[in-house]
Amino acid sequence: MSDFIRRSICDGVAFSNITDDRFKIGRLSATLISPLKKETAAANALLSCVLTRSCKKYPDFTALNKKLDSLYGVSLYPSVRQIGDYQAVTISSSGIDDKYALDDISVSSEMAELLCSILFEPAAENGLFSDEDIEQERRQLLENIDAEYNDKRLYAIRKCVELMCDGEAYSIGRFGRREDVEALKNEDVYSAWKQLLDNARTEFTMLGNSDPENAYQMFSKYFGNTPRKIESIPVVNKVPGKVKRGKIREELSQSKLVLGLRSAYFEEDEDCLANSLMCIVLGGTPTSKLFLNVREKESLCYYCASRMDNNKGIMLIDSGVESENIEKTEESILRQLDLMQKGEVTEEELDGAKLALKNALMSSLDSLAALQGYYIGGILRKGQLSPEKAASVVDKISRERVIELANCLRLDTVFALRGEK
Amino acid sequence: MIRRFDMNFTKIENKRVGEHYFRMEHPSGLTILVYPKKGFNSVYASIGTKFGSIYSRFMFNGKEVAVPDGTAHYLEHKLFESEDGDAFQKYAKTGASANAFTSFDMTCYLFSCTDRFSESLKILIDLMQSPYFTKETVAKEQGIIGQEIKMYDDSPDWRVMMNLFGGLYHKHPINIDIAGSVESIAEITPEILYECYNSYYNLHNMVLTVVGCADPEEVLNIVEKNIKPSSPVDTKLILPDEPYDVVKNYTEQIMPVAVPMFELGFKEKCTDKYVTNKEHVCTSVLMNAFAGESSKLYRELMDKNLINASFGFEYLEGLGYRSMIMSGETKDPSAVSEIINDAVRKLHKTGIGSEEFETARKAVYGRLISAFDSKQAIASELISGEFTGREIYGAVDEIAGLTLEDVNERLESQLDADNCCLSVVKGE
């Protein structure tokens, strides 16, 4: 497997590749990154769906899907994620390596051509996409947003974040607000396309066994020397005041409790790793403080876990509990945090967390999807480390540093989805 | 080809996939499968036992045993504890990421690691062989599993599926929730857990798979040092006679969901045999051609604003149950069901066309090949392959030689529009 090789196509546009002959599939994707804003988030999200539905060459989704099937089931899909206060729109494709084709078709070059058509030659005329495409994808995006309510664990987390980051870009959500999606006009989506192509920070990634030159040349053709207006914004990292509390009642068997905390915010990979390690000691494994105490000792829940968003400086802790145990669980979680802040971290706990984090980092080298997620997730940080280098940095993090970072945590918001039957 | 007590591994390779693995039936009774992945950093190891939630009644040494709903899953939780401590604590010292799951027809214990593999494998083998259930430890788990059950009670995806099974199957235990209910797990005692353990956690009923950067000799070495041989036991799953027809055609549950969810299940003739690789592949091609993203049916449902990208299908089959399930989110479940049923009736008249067949065959082939990039998928196929008799490379080979006639013949025993059930979960 080669290193992650990143080269510039033009200002703000880069092509990265890892050449690796261990895999049966190759992955090719384009990620367009821009600050998350209420005015553009919904249009960018809808755009990603409209683009992957058709293109000039395959002007409707049945024709496009037939093409994908005939290329041995190439998958082509949009995804939208938040990287801190930024929105990243990705069009991904993956397909089998050429050597597994049953005929002499080159799946990899067809995939590169297809991704170019999707991005640069959409089925649009006179500054508009087809109304049918817009309406179909709008309906589906709205259903997708509505369906977030169906998964109560994720729903509770989203509600906590909305309350915690009210007024910050972070709370807009990766798809934008529902009402903004509803209000979008065809021309808004079209101008989102122009705007992203012209000014978004753009990352192409190609992972797998195929020669990257062909794809690199193909993408390069579309970018001239016009300077891009890449917008960068400082990430908002607030110091919380009085703890905010939110509660919604629902007809559920189990209640969900979410604690939102502000953590220290860092731009350097080394510091982010220490923050992640601290989060793992607290609630990242089946031997973490939260799992062992809140679940195993007190039998309060099936899950109680913490997760860190280093791109924002936020840590969330969530648990599914009986309604009458909501307060007790909150106390129990905060007691564990307090103990940790007072220095109660054993060498055993620290070593266990280090091994778990290193295992996760090294394992990402065995999956192209995980590798891509790793690099794109950390793309806005300074001096991004490879998973191997990151793993060796983890070894050097001291117990004192972990305790120091635990002491940077400030409880901001407590949200409960209270189940009632 | 394979002698029962052969101390050598048999190498099984496939040119199309370009890979191979090693298999051995160890004298202890354990089947060992080692699948090397060249250049990988991590190893994924799992032990599976052929004991899941449908094993609610069985014969053990000539005696009939019936266990409370949720016992297999409870046993999975409790095996993590032994007299000398909790397995998670032991894994924490090696850095392995460990887990376990119980399905309808098996229970699997697994870990993945990038370092200190032999120590982790020893922990895995030990945890399978050191049951320790007392009144106190069994009681302690009731709160935790009770919360797990409630989490599933609130999950519309899970409810819509379990309600469907209730609508399809009269007597088959597939219609019982894997985790049981808060009431049923209250009946579980250490004695019941030991009885299940002695019946089904026997090495002759278990498979070890190791996928990734592992060497068969190393695996064998660790097994030999740590395994306690067991003599075969006489157990047999008791399955009720399940009629062909469904229980009902429609079932619904009101839950707090924003978009209604549906599962439409077509029940098939049930036997006590697993489907073959060829039957599986025929079904995949058939369903891709019939309801895949480039199909006429998918297009029609989309154009009528009835489905979104969550639409999909899955073939559910095992001992005594076989059904094709189509599912998704929709504002109008009955309309979706009507359109699918009309299309099914037409399909039985016309069969799949040759162009659709060819496209679907390629797509299915590509997906089968892609699955060999995932250690987890390989491990899972290896274990279920041992239990069902479906060799892991069989599907890829079958698809290369598949004909349109094969698929249309398979269709005859599938998708009976007069034998289906629609399950719906919707808001008030």
Characterization of this structure:
The complex is a heterodimer of chains A (about 425) and B (about 425). With about 425 residues, chain A is of the alpha+beta class. Chain A has 15 helices and 13 strands. Chain A has a six-stranded mixed beta sheet with strand order 1-2-8-3-5-4, with helices on both faces. A five-stranded mixed beta sheet of chain A has the order 9-13-10-12-11, with helices on both faces. A two-stranded antiparallel ribbon of chain A has the order 6-7. Chain B has about 425 residues and is of the alpha+beta class. Chain B has two domains: about 230 residues, Metalloenzyme, LuxS/M16 peptidase-like (Cytochrome Bc1 Complex, Chain A, domain 1, 2-Layer Sandwich), CATH 3.30.830.10; about 180 residues, 2-Layer Sandwich (Cytochrome Bc1 Complex, Chain A, domain 1). In chain B, a hairpin with a 4-residue loop joins strand 9 and strand 10.
Outline the fold blueprint.
The complex is a heterodimer of chains A (421) and B (428).
Chain A: E1 5-10, E2 13-19, E3 25-35, H1 38-51, H2 61-70, E4 75-83, E5 86-96, H3 107-120, E6 124-125, E7 128-129, H4 131-147, H5 152-164, H6 178-183, H7 186-199, E8 201-208, H8 212-220, E9 244-250, E10 255-262, H9 269-283, H10 289-297, E11 301-309, E12 314-321, H11 326-341, H12 347-363, H13 368-377, H14 387-395, H15 399-406, E13 410-419
Parallel strand pairs in A: 2-8, 9-13
Antiparallel strand pairs in A: 1-2, 3-5, 3-8, 4-5, 6-7, 10-12, 10-13, 11-12
Chain B: E1 10-14, E2 19-25, E3 31-36, E4 43-49, E5 57-60, E6 63-66, H1 71-79, E7 81-82, E8 85-86, H2 87-92, E9 97-102, E10 107-113, H3 117-129, H4 135-153, H5 156-168, H6 182-185, H7 190-200, E11 206-212, H8 216-226, E12 235-237, E13 250-254, E14 261-267, H9 277-291, H10 296-303, E15 312-318, E16 321-329, H11 333-350, H12 354-370, H13 375-388, H14 394-400, H15 404-411, E17 420-426
Parallel strand pairs in B: 3-11, 13-17
Antiparallel strand pairs in B: 1-2, 2-3, 4-10, 4-11, 5-6, 5-12, 7-8, 9-10, 14-16, 14-17, 15-16
Helix pairs in contact in B: 1-7, 3-8, 9-12, 9-14, 9-15, 12-14
